[in-house]
């Protein structure tokens, strides 16, 4: 996992920019990467655009497998992390289907598409990029670190990765990828601003079983995104989003049951 830096500055002394600087950097790299991808789309033939997307799909699949391995590192009470992850992903998926989260996200994407008169695969790009950029430990740990100490080092690393991914995604899906920056702003910015409260609940987020389980479940979802990008199948990844909330809840319950 990625270590958090020690808190050197009292949170009350930090400005709004200090707490959210990494998120704004992330937004900028996504927008910049999208712009580059759109330019490349005009100059590269379809077969090369397809290769770029396949390369991103393979890397996404690898990252997902790596993150999913976090499930093997956790044992809450007498229950293995894999079992908790399974319960979270299945029940979370059922809830997501019941609440029609995938449909709601697509509606948001369609609304944005109509608002800016986007075309092509706008909604698909918005949904895929939003999920890819928001799921994962760097988003959580980087936002907490930024909000607690003003240090945006972890989010800067994530920003570079997201910027490169934006180039590949936008070359296939178009301008919708850039609008995923709205999801990043709301999600990471919100985590950074709530970092003080979350630090009281999880004094050591980098090693907390709840975070490891959330990362592991997120890894399973990222694996699904990789399969979608490779067009091996078409999974409803957004439907599994409730699993990211259920994983730490189930972990806490298992710990208390002993």
Please characterize this protein's 3D structure.
By secondary structure, the protein is mainly alpha-helical. It has one domain (15-257). It has helices spanning 16-43, 46-68, 81-99, 101-116, 122-134, 137-149, 153-173, 180-193, 195-201, 209-229, 242-257; strands at 75-76, 79-80. Helix 2 (46-68) packs antiparallel against helix 10. It is globular and about 60 Å long. This is DUF554 domain-containing protein. Pfam families: DUF554. The chain crosses the membrane at residues 24-44, 56-76, 82-101, 122-144, 164-187, 208-229, 235-254.
Mean pLDDT: 90
**Based on helices, strands and strand pairing, what is the structural class?**
mainly alpha
Through-space gap between termini? 25 Å
Helix-strand topology string: HHEEHHHHHHHHH
Cross-sheet strand order for the largest sheet? 1-2
- Low-pLDDT stretches are none
Find the count of extended strands (DSSP E, 2+ residues).
2
CA gyration radius, whole angstroms? 18 Å
* Shape annotation: globular
